[in-house]
Amino acid sequence: MDSPAGRLERLLIGVILPLLFLISIVFIDNELTIKECSYGTCNNYVILLILILLVIIFVIILFINRFTYILNEWFSKETDEKMRLRLEEEYREADISNLNSQWAKMEMEHLEKKHGEEE
After folding, report:
1. Which one, 73, 79, 87, 102, has least CB within 10 Å?
2. Phi, psi of 41 (to 5 degrees)
3. Radius of gyration of the chain (CA)
4. pLDDT at 87 over 60
5. Cα gap 18→66, rounded to integer Å
6. 55 exposure class (CB count in 10 Å sphere: 0-12, 13-18, 19+)
7. CB burial class (10 A; 0-12, 13-18, 19+) of residue 93?
8. Are 16 and 69 in a shared domain?
9. Based on the domain organization, do 67 and 92 belong to the same domain?
10. What pLDDT is recorded for position 36?
11. Which residues are CB-neighbours of 30 under 8 A, at least 6 positions away?
12. Do residue 72 and residue 110 come from a single domain?
């Protein structure tokens, strides 16, 4: 199993590569035409610039995801197995049946601390 961050990387690479191919077609052959643009109201270089900007944005997101922890809130780098184990542990800790014993432990520690300060 892969992490959500790994899946995001694969998705971005899968989008970036076809966009690079499309940019090369527009740049070399100038063959990308849009029906509404056939009257000369828009230029293929505008489309080329938009595609280049998209690729740059996607590459920046890819590098941010790969080398920093900025996107960890949305795309965790934990594998699915580790995440599942961590969530099960948190669920067990938050279980209501253990609440009384945990409360008693906290109260006992507090009283011991208070009693230790009085001496």
Report:
1. 73
2. -80, -20
3. 28
4. yes
5. 20
6. middle
7. exposed
8. yes
9. no
10. 61
11. 44
12. no
Mean pLDDT, all residues of the chain: 80
**Shared domain check, 52 and 2:** yes
pLDDT value of residue 12: 93
> 44 and 88 share a domain?
no
Same domain, 36 and 60: yes
Q: How far apart are CA 57 and CA 74, in angstroms?
A: 18
> Residues 62, 69: contact at Cβ < 8 Å?
no
Same domain, 69 and 89: no
- Contact between 8 and 65 under an 8 Å Cβ cutoff? The reply is yes
Which CA distances in Å does 10 have to 31, 70, 82? Answer: 29, 18, 20
Domain that holds residue 72: 1-77
Same domain, 27 and 64: yes
Residues 71 and 62: their CA atoms lie apart, in Å, by 10
76: which 2 tokens? 């965790």
The total domain count for the chain is 2
